[in-house]
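C-alpha cells as discussed.
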C-alpha cells in the first residue's frame, strides 16, 4: 500500500515533462552526468556540445512525440590537439586518413550518392561515369 502511494506521489508531483525543461536545465543535467576528473574543468564546453548534438538528432514520431536517438550521435576520437579543439560536426564525419598530402582535409557541400545495388556487377570502361539527377532514372540505369 505504501509502495503504491509513493509511486503515485512520484508520478504526480516529482516528474517533470521534457517539454517543460529549459535549455539551462538540460545543460545542467548534461554537465552533471559527465562530471569526472577528465572533463570536470571543461564540463560547460562539453555539456553545450552534447545538448547541441542531441537537438541535432531530434525526431518527431507520428503521434507528435519527440525522440532523441542517442545511437545517432557518433564520437570519433583522434590523437593530438587540445580538449578545447574538440568540435561538433553538423553532418557526417568519416574517420579516414589522407593517402596524399595534396588531398584536402575538409570537404564542404559534398554530394553523396546512395546506391542500393552493387557497383562491382557493372564494370564500366575507363573514363565512363554514370550520373543520375533523378531517382527514377536510376532504375533505367539498372
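Sequence:
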Amino acid at each position: 500500500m505504501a509502495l503504491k502511494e509513493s509511486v503515485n506521489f512520484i508520478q504526480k508531483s516529482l516528474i517533470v515533462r521534457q517539454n517543460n525543461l529549459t535549455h539551462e536545465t538540460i545543460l545542467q543535467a548534461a554537465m552533471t552526468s559527465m562530471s569526472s576528473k577528465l572533463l570536470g574543468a571543461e564540463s560547460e564546453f562539453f555539456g553545450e556540445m552534447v545538448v547541441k548534438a542531441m537537438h541535432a538528432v531530434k525526431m518527431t514520431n507520428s503521434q507528435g512525440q519527440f525522440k532523441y536517438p542517442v545511437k545517432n550521435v557518433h564520437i570519433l576520437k583522434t590523437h593530438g590537439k587540445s580538449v578545447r579543439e574538440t568540435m561538433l560536426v553538423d553532418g557526417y564525419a568519416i574517420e579516414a586518413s589522407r593517402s596524399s598530402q595534396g588531398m584536402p582535409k575538409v570537404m564542404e557541400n559534398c554530394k553523396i550518392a546512395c546506391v542500393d545495388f552493387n557497383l562491382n556487377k557493372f564494370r564500366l570502361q575507363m573514363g565512363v561515369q554514370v550520373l543520375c539527377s533523378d531517382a527514377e532514372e536510376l532504375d533505367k540505369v539498372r
